[in-house]
Design a protein that fits this description.
By secondary structure, the chain is an all-alpha fold. The protein contains twelve helices and no strands. The model has no long low-confidence stretch (mean pLDDT 80). Keywords: Cell membrane, Membrane, Transmembrane, Transmembrane helix, Transport.
Length: 257
């Protein structure tokens, strides 16, 4: 079956989707949050709701590659504190998708991303940076983890836009580059796999979407390899600036689209 004809995709549109898939691989092994650009490309080429179902398996492929690359650097105490709140956010996001139209979803997520980017910049200018991500053991740290967890679960369910949310949390918690990438790799692999039944139940993942995924997933691999090569050449300050910039761009494109 011709996947491009099935989705009425032109050659240029397929090339755009292939580039977006490559960018997913890059974001998973280098600059987390950069895949908000992929989200925008998929939503521009495909129907908005359907695009989230097509993108999810591609994100999972990128997550697998990221886990294989950074599995030794994950901070599991942070992950265990996040997962219950994220589960609540995913359920809330599923209910929200049943009710909300595309415009409401885009506006809500865009506003959340910009707000958290602003809060993160403000916190990093007014507080000393911690060397270890141990703030989750304090009461304030637990509240912050739960708040970001719910928002992360919600945004990843409704638009696959949880990357910037969790990027802001991990940066604010003081994670260094490799710990950031290792922790986010396991986080998104587990969360994205758990989203599959919800997305299938909403009709966002079906036979046609999986056919398109099969044609695009191969492009994730070179993106991940480029990201692995690049991350060792990006210093910590530039890394953080790129993550925040990607979050701002993602929020703006959701608000203005």
């Amino acid at each position: 079956m011709d996947t491009m004809n099935l989705w009425h995709i032109t050659g240029w549109e397929f090339a755009a989707l292939a580039f977006a898939a490559l960018l997913v691989g890059f974001s998973k092994t280098a600059v987390s949050g950069a895949n908000t650009v992929s989200l925008a490309i998929f939503a521009a080429v495909l129907p908005a709701r359907a695009s989230t179902g097509v993108l999810l398996p591609i994100l999972i492929a990128g997550d697998v590659l990221a886990v294989l690359t950074y599995r030794r650097h994950a901070h599991w105490p942070t992950l265990w504190r996040l997962f219950p709140a994220v589960a609540a956010g995913v359920v809330f996001g599923t209910l929200f998708l049943v009710w909300a139209d595309d415009g409401i979803v885009r506006t809500s997520i865009g506003a959340i991303l910009l707000l958290m980017a602003a809060v993160t910049v403000w916190r990093r200018r007014t507080a000393e940076k911690e060397d270890e991500p141990d703030s989750v053991t304090t009461r304030a740290g637990r509240v912050k983890a739960r708040s970001y967890g719910v928002l992360g679960g919600f945004t990843t369910m409704v638009a696959n836009a949880g990357g910037p949310v969790m990027s802001m949390y991990l940066l604010s918690a003081g994670f260094r580059k490799l710990g950031f990438l290792g922790t986010s790799a396991f986080f998104f692999l587990i969360v994205n796999v758990s989203k599959v039944p919800f997305s299938a139940g909403l009709g966002l993942i079906d036979g046609p979407s999986l056919l398109l995924d099969a044609a695009l997933v191969i492009f994730v691999v070179p993106g991940a390899l480029i990201g692995k090569w690049a991350v060792g050449r990006i210093n910590q300050r530039l890394f953080e600036q790129l993550v925040i910039a990607a979050t701002v761009v993602g929020g703006l494109q959701l608000l203005l689209r």
